[in-house]
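pinned: reference chain
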Amino acid sequence: MNVLIVEDERSLAKELAFFLYQQNFQCEVARTGHEASELLAVNTYDFVLLDLGLPDCDGLDLLTEAKAQEITAAIIVLTARGEVADRIRGLDLGADDYLAKPFSLPELLSRMHAITRRRFGVAKPLIQFGEFALDLQNRQLLHQGQEVTLSVKEFDLLSYLVLHKNRVLTRLQLTEHIWGNLPEDGYESNYIDAHIKNLRKKLTRYSELPWLETVRGLGYRFSL
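pinned: its structure tokens
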């Protein structure tokens, strides 16, 4: 998943990016509201981690702007402001969650997982399909309780398809999700097709895959 970290404190921004990279997130950092606004206008993110104390604007103004532009990313406000009024205003403006500094990085990750489950209507971290179970929190695919070995990108691809079940996802959408914001012609490559092929090969060792469809000329769909 792609994350935009809007934080002017360099050490914290670096710490967040490193931690999330270890959790297989793709991260970009903006240190001002202006820079964040430009990135949000041209790129697609799954999460925005938004500091309120930016050097050139109030983060709540950026939140208001993002919601007015119908940015689909989940927004988590990260701030040293601990007042209840600030938390209420941020949530009322459309933030998905609020963490006061200092915060625990594992707690942030847990909240991100919880937001993902809520947004996709998944009640539990374990998603069952046929003889398989996808464990989103522990990043595992299980077949009848035994782990199926997947690469990082294969797991990311499968989980993204499962979360967007019954929806056709284009190669460009999948490429942006798995590899981040690539050059405009990046999706022309066969990255996605090759990964889908490898994924199918691994999973069909255990069971048939009626759920994973190729939609000719468009992309792929996971039907449940």
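why pinned: Helices lie at 10-22, 33-42, 59-68, 84-92, 105-119, 152-163, 171-179, 191-203. Residues 4 and 28 are 5 Å apart (CA to CA).
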